Structure prediction request, 548 residues.
Amino acid sequence: MLETLSRSKQASVGAASGSAVSVTNLHIRFGANDSSFTALSDVSVEIPAGSLVTMLGPSGCGKSTLLRTVADLVHISDGSVSVHGQTPRKAREGRDFAFVFQEATLLPWRNVIDNVRLPLLVGKREAGATYADPEELIALVGLKGREKAMPHELSGGQRQRVAIARALVTRPRILLMDEPFGALDEITRDKLNEELLRLWQETGTTILFVTHSIPEAVFLGQHVLMLAAHPGRVKEFMTVDLPYPRSLAMRDTVEFIRVTAHLRTLLGEC
Amino acid sequence: MANVLPSQAEGRALVDGNRFKMLDAAAGAALRHLPATLAILGCILLWQLVVWGFSVPTFMAPGPLDVIKAFGENAGVLWANFWPTLMEAVLGFVFGNVVAVLLAVWFVHSPLAERAFYPIAVIIKSIPIIALAPILVLLVGNGIAPKIIIAGLICFFPTLVNMVQGLKSVSPAMLDLMRILSASNSEIFWKVRLPSSLPFLFAALKIAATSSVMGAIVAEWIGSSYGLGALIIEATYNFRSPLLYATVVIAASLAVVLFFAVSFAESKIVRWKPTTDH
Prediction:
């Protein structure tokens, strides 16, 4: 499994500095000049390569916008975003990152394995790039034997597992996740959180994870990026001093509760 | 039929499991449609009783038995006039829907084209089809062409509207996904837009299947000497009511057969269900 996902792409210039994503004085405005809305104002942050950063903030703070800007889905008004030293557009074309949405966004007319294969069938494919084996990835996310199942035959959690397998098939160096488990029940969410941590530790992929749950942000995050709203700006970029591997039982420890309490106070100030 | 099946099927079950399953399915379908079948038979029986009871003259309203007799006596005429109407309806169906689908694809890729030509489509749609028939006869003559055009025009509009809606029904997240994968416009069209429009397309095709028969028959009313439409006019003028009713039954059956043909194609092609994540 580790071999399937080990990094094969050459580290580019920007990676030498040790940051996977570097955001500098970023401003995002939507709409025309007179009726424009500022989603992000002067955001600067460095996401270290190989780290797992969770993004928290009140609704309207622009955490999804920040993630979508890194993914080249939002036009940059001012400032810059660099992904391994490249523009988001170049990084997208080079398949440097993959995106997992809140909804699994599977194509309902393709079965599990064909959905996981989708990134290998569309877009520009680098000559000589080696991609992960879809069957091994399906086994990795715990769906071995369901390769031929159609999306409507799967539960919400299983569909999200397929979406994660699909994201990993291009062996991205960065995984961008926009509230991927937000629509799932708590038991499924806990299980997927544990498995995501295992996946991260096995593959060394940089993960940027947007959530609206404080416990989820602390449980997963090596760092927590908290944004404040109106306009969206950085409130705090903190390191979570809890050792890995983390288990669900950790959520009942004093240290864990201290961190979540601190974040809750911060969130109240936003 | 249902009580014959088990003994028949038992003998064959060992030899041919598939055949058993087929018979089983047929028996199940027969049972499911039993209430509808009985209701239809009841209506026909009531009709015959009313015709007998009130001594309705045959030219005014023939009873089911007269109509069945008319089928036998006029089998040759009905058969000869069935084929041209089938041809016109099917060619009109194909022609009208192909144009509608191509136009819908163009509209979705060019908002300017949609703004320019959608109103024209609405204007053409609002001309009563029966008023259009004489105009087309003057334009393209009295052959098969005006019939195909009218059958096509009747199919055209519902398919255009549904197909435009279907092609636009793709979720924004799916388009985001394709953008992140750097997919080209044609890849987005073939892999996402077209498949997600199919349920909309088939909804329209089912409407078009029945209305194409109607279009062909209406077109045959205007100066045609063949087809079920012409036969309806001729039978009416000559007070051959049983033949008129028999023709109407054939026309309705044709529409039903085309409808089920489209439904069958849909069940083979659209084998997936939309997923809801919440």
